[in-house]
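As practice, study what follows.
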Amino acid sequence: MSTATDLELPSQDALFRLRGPLPAPEHVVIVAMDEASENQLGVGQDLTRWRAFHAHLIQQLQRQGVKLVVFDLQFIAANPAVDPALAAAMRAAGNVLIGECVQKFRRGAADFFGREECSETNKQTAVALEGNADAELPEQLVAMRQIRATPEIAAAALDSAPFYLANDAEDSKVREVWTFFDALADAPSLPVLAWTYTRQAAAAFADSGQSGSAWLTERRRDCLAAEDRPAPTGLGADFDKLLCDGDSRYLNYYGPPKTLCMESYADVYSGKIGDLRDKVVFVGRANRQFSPGKTDFFPTPFSDSRTGKMAGVEIMATQFANLSQAAFIEIPMPFWTVSGPFGLAVAGLLNSRRKRRGLLASAVVAAGYAGFAVYAFAAWRWWLPLAGPLLVQLPLSWLLALAWSRYDLICERKRLLNFVRQVFPQWATFVPAAPGAWHAERHLPPTRPERDVSGLCLATDIAGYTAIAAQHSPREMWQLLNAYYQVLGHPVISHQGMIADVTGDAMMAIWCELPPAKQKQLACLAALDMAAAVEAFNQATPLAPLATRIGLHQGELTLGRLEAGRTSHYRAIGDTVNTASRIQGVNTPLGTRILATASIAAELEGIVSRPVGSFRVIGRSEPVELVEIVGCGDAEPNAVHSRFAEGLAAFRAGDWAEAIRSLQAALELDADDGPSRFYLQKAVEFRRNPPERWNGVVLLDAK
């Protein structure tokens, strides 16, 4: 692999994000073996059950005139029931490439790893392959092997090659990919093989009788053995460079996962997708809804909690597109040849000018260099070092310059003190020798560990969490909650909020130091995004769904540090926090998801809400007027809400008969409207047993 320093790897992620997505190449299409196809074809997640459909898929693709079909699959175990039809379809098409599996072993079976498991029958240890099962391999010895498809499938396919992704436990992001596997007898990777076949106009190996993979291996060996560069192949300078310069390249990602054109396997299989003529089609597993926990998904520089990981087949297609467009990320020169002159330039600026001017000039130079590095990455795909020059050399140079300046100042003060002692000895005791004693502002009182703010609290809770936790192991609950809080926290951060506390199944977020109207707007939007994100999460998780309740309240609170033994904890404390928690609990009897005090949604543009009544919650003597946050956008007439509003008005006025009539009408329009059902039950109960003193406030006797 290439030799970029570990320090600079995160800077590449920043450069990708600053550059942003690129237009996806039009000639590359991914046929995704996704969740929808699993359900429509009835294959589940067992890859072996898909093979029965591949023959028809190949025929559909050939009818549309695709240029090349690349399967990111290894057909290792024979399936006599479907293999003849699949082989016949491959042979008739004449343009189907398939993958080969790569396995690596270290110390027998104790350290088996690789992108795919190949198959259960191929999981032999490296020592077993060597014929000495009692021997133990040394720690540094790593054995690799290729496992090819069954003879029938291999003979029918146009060609085959491996596609292996190194997975580093310390930094699992895929930034670099193999072009050749020199440890596997100089075998080319599958994207390189596919790219070579698309350049077959030169017919460099058509007349030799060799397959494309064998021809590429032979040319690669010629490059490695030759002292000088071998004779050109006739396929272009970029092809000759690929053959002879290194065995890996840095990927130029076009954007986050699913940026490349991706069509569902079931849609292509049934002929719903057209316009694939002259396209290169990659077929492989690629979930398009939810990837956490799935195998063969890898983080990339664009990955975050929202975008998720990228499927292996999309990484393969990205490498092929980079080859086709000659668009890999390049390191134009060794990093030290850039960071060295940068450090000298900063040092020269700091030494040749006064302290403040030198700092300002060096900051301007650093900003200019950073801007050029971002531009070079976007325009020319040059990866220049950023972390070393900006995060190490520049601060270190500043620190050294300030330390030297302070040292020089101390020396100057000592010389001044010696002068005073000689000329004005009576003033010597009033002249401090240390610069830290010169300024009275050094003796300011310490800052307080807490502060009072006016803010807005958002409280969440999981309905029925105790019952869910009782049905699963602690590790399963940890994995579930870990993924859940990633989904739950992203809307808070993206809407300028702060997560103040996470305890068990509850989370508390706050908005402060913003204009009150801005706090309300951002908190309501975060709550709506949170509810939508949790709904999508619940549809994708294999465990129990987590029904989340949300409550919003605004008021005074204290942010501060609580001392507990030898540890400190920062918390938001106050009645506002407790009331927000109580409000989220009102969702349970009302059957709602998001409730807020009426003052939050009042005169708030772009937020649709409806009043749901006045409640006296546990722990508060004063009632709170609540509204349900329904959605965002322009408010539209809603017949259910109108009927409910009529029923609520009658209920609060004590007209139980009218309330029952209006609420029943609302439920006829929407039988799932929780507030209408709640108040209908209360109205029926109060008509039988009217309250003694009715003021329109509902008393809740539970959290």
User: Anything to note?
Assistant: DSSP finds 22 helices and 22 strands in the chain. Residues 107-114, 123-133, 137-141, 433-447 have pLDDT under 50 and may be disordered. The CA atoms of residues 656 and 683 lie 5 Å apart.
